[in-house]
């Protein structure tokens, strides 16, 4: 495939769709991964109708083998992966005294472990200049105790991205998480389209001033 390719893990109607569209405007083909098959197909067909080359595979992000196989197929078909974007997290409204260890680990397996699986699967198809991006959250620093596992996920996600960036940088591949410091909402400063613009800008930072964590405080991003 002559087009550059972005793989969006956790592609839903919000940030995932907006990221696919943002890169689609730049000529990228989008490969989508998410669990709900019908919703994923609807999104894929909608992006195709908008003129974006799009493929999709429904898979549970916590299914290591399934996710690895899906990303491997995308990478093999396209003969490369230029951007891997990781979007999913689990919202479970339980405070620490109600949250079980099994529930915490289940959520972390999605919101953090899924990134590890995705990057390991994508790495053989990524060349110098490729990028890994992730949707982070202020919950990493300011967790809401009533959804305790979310803060753990986002703190772990950011930490893992730092480690991934340090590991991949010698090969010319960089990783960055965008810390969204507000609540997502259409028509607000934290509209998914603004988040997608900020993620695109974060992925295109100059190497000499690269930051593996970038805050997003809302609104349009200059130069996006």
Automatic annotation (TrEMBL):
<dbReference type="InterPro" id="IPR036291">
    <property type="entry name" value="NAD(P)-bd_dom_sf"/>
</dbReference>
<comment type="similarity">
    <text>Belongs to the short-chain dehydrogenases/reductases (SDR) family.</text>
</comment>
<dbReference type="InterPro" id="IPR002347">
    <property type="entry name" value="SDR_fam"/>
</dbReference>
<dbReference type="Pfam" id="PF00106">
    <property type="entry name" value="adh_short"/>
</dbReference>
<dbReference type="GO" id="GO:0016491">
    <property type="term" value="F:oxidoreductase activity"/>
</dbReference>
<protein>
    <submittedName>
        <fullName>SDR family oxidoreductase</fullName>
    </submittedName>
</protein>
<keyword id="KW-0560">Oxidoreductase</keyword>
């Amino acid at each position: 495939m002559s087009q550059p390719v972005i793989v969006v893990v956790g592609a839903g109607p919000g940030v995932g769709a907006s990221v696919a569209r943002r890169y689609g405007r730049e000529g990228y083909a989008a490969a989508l991964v998410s669990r709900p098959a019908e919703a994923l197909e609807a999104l894929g067909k909608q992006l195709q109708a908008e003129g974006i080359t799009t493929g999709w595979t429904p898979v549970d992000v916590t299914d290591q083998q399934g996710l690895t196989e899906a990303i491997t197929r995308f990478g093999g078909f396209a003969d490369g992966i230029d951007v891997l974007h990781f979007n999913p997290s689990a919202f479970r409204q339980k405070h620490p005294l109600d949250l079980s260890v099994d529930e915490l680990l289940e959520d972390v397996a999605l919101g953090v472990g899924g990134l590890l699986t995705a990057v390991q699967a994508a790495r053989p198809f990524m060349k110098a200049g490729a990028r890994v991006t992730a949707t982070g959250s202020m919950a990493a620093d300011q967790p809401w105790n009533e959804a305790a596992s979310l803060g753990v996920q986002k703190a772990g996600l950011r930490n893992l991205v730092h480690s991934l960036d340090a590991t991949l940088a010698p090969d010319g591949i960089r990783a960055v998480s965008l810390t969204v410091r507000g609540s997502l909402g259409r028509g607000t400063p934290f509209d998914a389209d603004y988040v997608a613009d900020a993620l695109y800008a974060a992925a295109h930072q100059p190497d000499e001033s690269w930051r593996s964590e970038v805050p997003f405080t809302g609104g349009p991003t200059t130069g996006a």
